[in-house]
Structures are given as C-alpha cells and as structure tokens.
Amino acid sequence: MQQPCYHCGTPNPNTQYQAVVLNELRYFCCPGCQAVAEAIVSNGLENYYSFRSEMAEKVADNNSEIFQSLQLFDDDNITEEFVHHSGDSKEVQLSIAGINCAACGWLLEKQLSKLEGINKVGANVTSKRLIIQWDEKQLKLSQILRKIQQIGYIAKPFQEEQHEALHQQENKTLLKRLGLSGLMTMQVMMLNLGVFFDVFGQIDAATKQYFNWISLILSTPVAFYSAMGFYLSAWRALKARTVNMDVPISFALISIYVSGLYATSTANGQTYFESLCMFVFLLLISRFLEQNARFKAAQISANLLSHMPTTATLVCDEGHKTVLAKQLKIGQRVLVKVGDVVPIDGLVLEGMGQVNESMLTGEFQLISKRADDPVYAGTINQVGTMVIVVQNELKDSVASQINQLQNRALLAKPKVANFADRTAHHFVLFVLIIAALTYVAWLFIQPENAFWVMISVLIATCPCALGLATPVSLTCTVGYLNKRGVLIKRADVLEQLTTVDWVGLDKTGTLTEGQFVIKKLVNYSELTDDRILSLAASLEQFSSHPIAAVFKQYSNILKVEQAQEHIAKGISGIINDVNYSIGSARLLPNPSDPSLAQFNVFLLQEQQLLAAFILSDAIRPESAAVVSQLAPLHISLLSGDNSQTVELVANELNIDDWHAQLDPQQKLDFIKQAQALGHQVLMIGDGINDAPVLAQADVSITLGIGTDLAKSSSDIILLENSLQKIPLIIRQAIRTQRNIKQNIAWATAYNLLVLPLAISGSLSPLIAVIGMSVSSLIVVANATRLLK
To answer: Is 631 within the bounds of a domain?
Structure first.
C-alpha cells in the first residue's frame, strides 16, 4: 500500500528513502525530506512530529544538507522546547563539543559578539555550554550555529540526556587517547632509558638508530591521534586570527616530532620522542582530571531538570490516563499519588499532601499542602494524594526558570575573571615572542641547544593554570550555594559581595513573615469579643486588602448586604439592618485622636467606634540572628509602613537607623544617596514592591520562589524563603575571592619562576612537561575545596 511522505505528506510511490522516527520505520519521498527527518531525530527533536498540526513543506533535494545542519533550527515548531523568550530577545542554551579551556570560551564569545543582533553571549567552559541572547529580527539561530561551525565547534541545543551523553562520549574519546599515549609512553621510555643509561653495554650507532626508528613508529599515533585535540583547538584559534593555550602546545609537539623525524631519517641529531609522548600523556591526564572535576561541580547546580518527570496522570472525564508532562496545558487536572514526582507547577484542587521541596530549597523538611497551596514540578509528594490544576506549562515552571537563571549566571563575569582571561590571552602571545627571542639568543650561545630550549619555554610557561584559575572556582561556589537553596544569577556578584559595607533591609515580607496577626483587640462596646470578631470577619471577606486575610480564620460569618469597598478607607455593609464599617483611621469622626494612634484597624457601627485592633506582621525567627551577624556593616531599615510599627521592629532587632512611610521612590533615593557617598550597597527585599531598589543596589537579594522569578530584579534568590543563608553567602563569597586570588597568584608565580629557568636552559622538555601539568592540577584541586 502506498504511503505518503512522512515529512511533507506528498504521494510517495517508493520505499527507497526511510528512517526510524518515534521508534517506527517511516518512508520519505526524497533524500531532502529523509535528511531533515534524520537531522530532527539526531538532535533529539523528534517530538516535533508528535505535536505538529500540519505537514512540513517539501524539501528541495539540492538544499538537503543545509536544511539538515542549520535551517532546521529556524522552525519555531522545532525550537519551541529549547529557545526561550527573554524580553524582546530570544535565548538558547547550547552544548558545545570540543571546548577545552578558558581560551576556547573566550574565542567563542569574541567571535559571536561580532554578529549583528547578538545581545549577550556567555561560554561556561566548565559545563561545556554556551548561552546566547539575540534579536531574531536581525539574526536567525541558523546563522549563529553556522558561525560556531565556521569557528570549528559543534553546537547542539542543550538537553540533559544528550549533554550527559556528550560528556560520556568525550570522556570515552579522551580515555582512548590517554590510554594509547600511556601505553606508547611506557614503550618509548623503556627504549630510551636503555640508550640514556647504556644498560645493554656499549650500544653501537646502528642499534641506537634502530631504537630511534622504533620510537618514531611508537610515537606517531601519539602525535597524530592522542594529541589531535590540541591541534584542532589551536587551528580554530588561528583561523579566527587569535591565539589560545593550545597554540604553543601544538607548536611544541609538532616541532619535537618533526625534528625527531628528521634526526631519525638522516641519522644525525638528537630525538626527544620520550618527551613528546610524556608531554601528551601528562597533558591528557591533566585534561581528564580537570574535565571530571569541573563536570562534577557543574552537575550540582546544573541538574535541576534531571528531577523533572517525563509522564503525568491526567484526570479527564473518562478517568485517568498517562500523558507526557510537557504536553500538559494550563487548566488541566493532574493526579499526584504518594511517592509521585509532581509533574507540573500548579495549585492543589483536592486532597492533601506533604511535599519534599529540597530540590528547590535545599531543605528536606516536608511541606504540608492543602487546597489552593502551590506545588512545583520536580518536587516529591511523600504523604497523601492530591489533584492539582496546572498553572504553568513545563517549560515555564519554576524549576525551568531556575535552570535558565542558573545558566545565565556566568554571562556576567567578575572583573577578576575578565582580567584572568585577558592575561592568559596576552601571556600566550608573550610566551610565543619570548620563545622566538630565546631561540635567536641561543643560536649565538649554543646553536645545537637553541631548538630544545625554545621548546622548554613553550611547554613550561603555557598559561593553562592561569586560564583555569577563575572559572573553576566560580563554578564550584555556584554549585555549593545552589545545593543549599541559593540561586546566583550573576557570577560577578560574588566579587561585589566582598566589598559591601552598607545594607538596606525591607521590613514586610523580609524581616517579617508577611502574615499579619491580631496583636491587640480593645472592645469599646457592650458586645462580646467573639461578636466583634464575627462582625469584622463578615465585612473583611469582601476586602481585597492583604490585612483582610487575618480575619479568615473566624468562621462565624454573618450575611452582609450592600457591601462596598472604599479606597484607602475600608469596607462597609449592612448586617441585620445595621450599617457597619471596618478599616483605617480615616473612617473615624476624629482621625487624629492621639489615644487611638497605636491602632491601625477600626470597627464602627454607624459612626460609633465599637473596637480597635493592632495588627502587626510577625518577625521571622531568624531575623535577629541575621541582623546580628551583619552588624559590622551599616544597616538601614527602609519601610513603607507607619512609624510606630517600624520603630517596634527596629527596636526588637537592634537596628538604630530606620525610616518609615517611604514610597518606592524614596527608598530608591536612600540607596542612591548611600552610593553617592561611596558605599557599596546590599539590598535585601521581598522582590515584589522593591524592584527599583533591588535593581539599583550593587548587590540585591530576594526571597522565595514566586511565579515572577525570571523577571526578578535581584542578583541572588533564596529559594527556601529564609534569611538564614545570607551570612553563609557572604562568607562563601569571601572564600571564593580568596580562592581565586590564590589560584591566580600560584599560576602567575609559577610562570614567573619557571620562565627564567626555561630560558636559561635549566629545564629539559620532560621536566617542563611535568611542571606545567602539576601546576594546572594544583589550581583545580584548590578550587574544589569550595565544594566542601
């Protein structure tokens, strides 16, 4: 039976072109459609075929290769899962194969920044990812991918499973190259030890030459297979008219091999095949250990999406059915049983549960969930059964937002990171120049040693450790904090935190819990207190003011007629033919009565005062300890609340500098004034009404995992909605800064120490290889201490 083309739907009289899509063999009308389908499958995007609403256009045969590699990614149906909107621009996260060091990341950032339409580009060398923001009106994703391909790297949309597979594949390739170089190094070293120490007695020239030929044969796969990664990296840099750390390495390797080949073939001169093999072997060991250490650190903060479920139990009219979690739409109902992972962000509709939200907050205490309580995708329901109503699609879930913010963290590099990157880049040029001058100088001193002294300079002073000094430390710290429920949105904030000397604190929702309670009730009538509370609760049910929630716990609700809300005053209504009102002091016949100044809510019958309430916000249990730990810094309490309430909180927390009844503009003026006086400002707020001051501060911290997470103006988000991690963040920032300085100091000192030794000819190529590798490993080992 003739089947239409699976891709474009046109009549398909043959079965010549076929591919497996969605675990079934599909048939296509031409090589073009077949190529596009294979490209979709190979890039992990085959769900396109599950969700498409119409057939694709037929692909022109002569353009199949272009469609396969690039134009495929301009189809919104295909890119919907991994391309995100960020304001007026789009953002994509790419996995980059072949990225080895900070210089590789620098190269990608510099070259892509030249494209018109690129807003931001950040390379995270540690996790081998690239995050790009661009204006789609000026630039297509296919053009970005084409540029990356021209530089010499392979980019694919980041997907957790594929990224893990990419890491395993690169690890496998690296192990093969490492194993081969190690095996050959042992053989070549054994042969050359015999020559060096003459352990076989008097070795004649013919035997030495025979050993040289064997060493050449054994070294060739090391030089051309094991070391291929260094050559490719160097070629990408040179093709982009720049240099990276692999340029001097590649030059040294090729020079050693070519000189050895010449010396062996002409039977004239010295060979250093053992140095070449040892150089490659130690370099690959270093790269392998670095890669695994950095990958482990990155996984701590980058695997939020690995907690995300793939399926969900949909509640429908016919009963329950299993569907893909990413197919769920807003408004649908989902059943979450005991032990299930919550598949989507939503609100509890029916039932109760106790949920483990540690993957978001870092805290393992179970959170009780009842009707109308929010639940988040990736958390685990450990007690009870719930039916939830979907509030966000999976790609817009809190976990997805956190993942996006976490991956943007390294877009903004601290000054010290930029300094290290620039220094490493310039140092490579410096090394190449010094090596050339050394070679020329030794031609006049000992011409026969000039070449090998130059090689020692190139090897010993390669600034690999300097390039690793900052990114490894930053990645370890971001991972450490993320594991403890702290989300860092900008890596450079860790540097700025160490210079903060002025702290601004919001009150409501920050130092306090944002939940009002009745602290005092004064009854001026003959009614009982229960009757007073019943009247108040009956009226407040019609109020939209947050304070109204205080009275919801009182269940004796009376029938209210003609309820009406009065802006900035309160609520009025008729109960049993009597007019009652509740609200602010503006309802009172004499609002300025000093005897009532301490109260903030009043209940009246007609114009007669029945009762007055003091409602205040409960102070967070951890606020006092946090303020005490921040005490060495200047602390200002900035609040929009009335003076009496703010003073009460300030006195309880021992804050001397407090300001009340501030609107957002006045808060902003306080921050600007402090900055004008030279202070580095840290602002801590709830992220809702404090957006202007959070954006203005040098560093800003907000609490919670609200739905506007992606739009938050803050630099740091405390996912567990608690202040107790703030001192930890500051301490870790100081540790990180100290760690980075240690790494840079060590890398710089090593290069300055080894350079004169290499120039003077005191280092053989073999010793230079060992020193350079050990230097890089010391930097990585020092950085990983930040994970503890």
So the answer is: yes
Q: Are residues 537 and 614 in the same domain?
A: yes
Nearest to 420 by CA among 147, 783, 787, 699: 783
Instruction: Please give the structure tokens belonging to residue 495.
Output: 């540097």
Q: For 571, phi and psi rounded to 5 degrees?
A: -125, 140
Residue indicated by tokens 């809510």: 601
Buried b / exposed e across 327-357, counting CB within 10 Å, b at 16+? ebeeebbbbbeeebbbbbbbebeebebebbb
Task: Tell me how far apart the alpha carbons of residues 7 and 37 are, in angstroms, rounded to a whole number.
Answer: 7
Number of helices and strands (H, E) in the chain?
A: 24, 29
From CA 60, how far away is CA 39, in angstroms rounded?
15
The SS3 of residue 564 is strand
d(CA 366, CA 378): 14
- Token pair of 491 as six digits: 């890596």
Closest CA to 368 of 388, 348, 387, 349: 348
Q: How many domains does the chain have?
A: 5
In sequence order, what are the residues at sequence separation of 6 or more whose Cβ sits closer than 8 angstroms to the Cβ of residue 104? 98, 123, 125, 153, 233, 236, 244
User: Which residue did the predictor score with more confidence, 171 or 28?
Assistant: 28
- The burial class, CB within 10 Å (0-12 / 13-18 / 19+), for 632 is exposed
- Straight-line distance from the first to the last Cα atom of the chain, in angstroms, rounded to the nearest whole number: 64
Q: Are 605 and 517 in contact (CB under 8 A)?
A: no
- How far apart (Å, rounded) are the C-alpha atoms in residues 633 and 610? 46
- Please answer whether residues 610 and 603 qualify as being in contact, where contact means their C-beta atoms are separated by less than 8 angstroms: yes
Residue pLDDT, tens place only, 753-777: 888 888 888 877 667 767 776 777 7
Assess if residue 107 is contained within a domain: yes
| 213 located within any domain | no
699-703/681-685 β-pairing: parallel
Paired residues of 630 in beta bridges: none
Pair (535, 659) in one structural domain: no
Residue 396's H or E segment, with its range, is: none
pLDDT digits (tens, 9 = 90+) for 474-522: 777 877 887 787 877 766 778 888 888 999 988 877 888 767 778 889 9
